[in-house]
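Mods, move this if it's the wrong board.
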Amino acid sequence: MIAKMTKVTFLVYHKEYDCFLKNIRDLGVVHVATKAQGGAENAALQESIRLSARYAEAIKLLQGMETASAEVREGDAAKGEQALKQTDELLQQSQQLTHRVQAAEKELAALEPWGDFDPQNISRLHKAGYQTSFYICSEKQFKLEWVDLYHATVINRIGSKMYFVTVTKGMVLPELEVETAKLPDSSLSALQAKVADLKAQQTALQEKLKDLAATVISDLKAAQHQVHSQIEFSKVVLSTDALADNKLMLLEGWIPSERLPEMTEYLRTQEVYYETAAPTPEDDVPILLENKGFFRLFEPIMRLYMLPKYNELDLTPFFAPFFMLFFGLCLGDSGYGLFMLLAVTLYRLFAKKLSASMKPILTLVQILGASTMVCGLLTGTCFGFNLYDIQVPFFQTLKETISLDNQQMFNLSLILGGVQIIFGMILKAVNQTIQFGVKYAIATIGWILILVSTAVAFAAPGLMAMGGTVHLILLAIGGLMAYLYNSPDKNIFVNIGLGLWDSYNMATGLLGDILSYVRLFALGLSGGILASVFNSLAVGMSPDNVIAGPIVMVLIFVIGHAINIFMNVLGAMVHPMRLTFVEFFKNAGYEGGGKEYNPFKN
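Not the wrong board. Structure tokens:
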């Protein structure tokens, strides 16, 4: 269900406004009606956003270091600021070293074909009046007369390339139509030592970063949280309207109605004028879901789609039982369900620390695993084996009581689809009544009457004969409701036309929606077949050896079923969500689009 909200308007004297904002932030119950305008032009806000991004990058970098972190402790924001400066300095030094290493390696690559020689020897030749030049060419380009004319000497051959030097007397250099090589002023051994030294400096910097990562991550997070608070504070300030020559500050927000007494008690002690009001249909009210127990576990699935609007029904409690059942039918293997249940239960027992957000997710997985165990008993599938082939009284009793064959499972899928779709239409009628009034729900009620009466006549002719008097009366009443009250504000002819259009959509869309539920049967069947295939492979491919045979059999069994569990669990999540978000939500008239309640708090 959706928590009731109350609109609150504050009027505060400008000199007391900062203190007032800090106080309501400490209370942490007011969702401020923020405004988009002005945010992009606010330099301080943009600087805070950039600073937050720097903290995020530093935290991500240090968390990626393979280092043993110190024990978890409460962070210090002031130390976090210093840690960010240290991290930035180390990163800047690392970047500079990287550029220097790249430049030195480039020089090293250029000098390696020429070997290790002292550049001072070239300088002495130059002082003695001899010009030494370095050239690179292909073997075809090299001419033998260069040996006599310019004392060309081949230094190295790499592939089809030749590296040679010329030594000529005087200041005139030979004009050769080949590539000239420009070599660095260092020897090969000196460059190699330089590269090794730079890389050693890089390694030392990485060690400093690792040492930093082991101690300052919690401080960086604390400083980042402080910046986030500043950002939220700035957004609230930008959402404030200044009145009376900027002397009065007007702020609007929303508060859960059950928390209103707490806020009122605080405001009575302050020099603040405030007003409360109920939401109007035009208001963009934030959404706070308040489902309890079992239904609360399915709220993350609702958030994957979108939150309802404030004046809509929260469909979470209504799709939760169906989703649990659909998951079990799609996975359809009692062994897989038992594995999920035991694995999560053992994890919860032995995990050292579980976050508050993780616990409900694990509980949801346990419930889905239990549902799979029960649904798997409908076909008797357990890790690809059929439990009902075991001649044990307990399994034989279950077989006689709840076992279904493939045709019955197919029919069950269609029946469940029809039930959920009609249930969705009932919720649509309720939603229309709440939002617009009873007369806007009459057409939907008419279609429900037509579909339910036809389904009863088909399934239980003893109660109502198909085409009998009672059935025809109910069809006539439903038809009149659907055709004459399709759109209550329009005239009768428009209503009849819209009713005919709805009839076409109902005849085509409803059939497609119900057939979509066949996937419940198909996925469970395909998963069971694939599991049995892996069992056959495990038996058939194991060698006839006392030692190797069982090992190979277990490996194939474990790997095969691990792959099957992964694929089937993924399908068992995706397809029930598809049935919920498309078929069920569509027939329930769900619109969605609400924004989540996000109180201004530390």
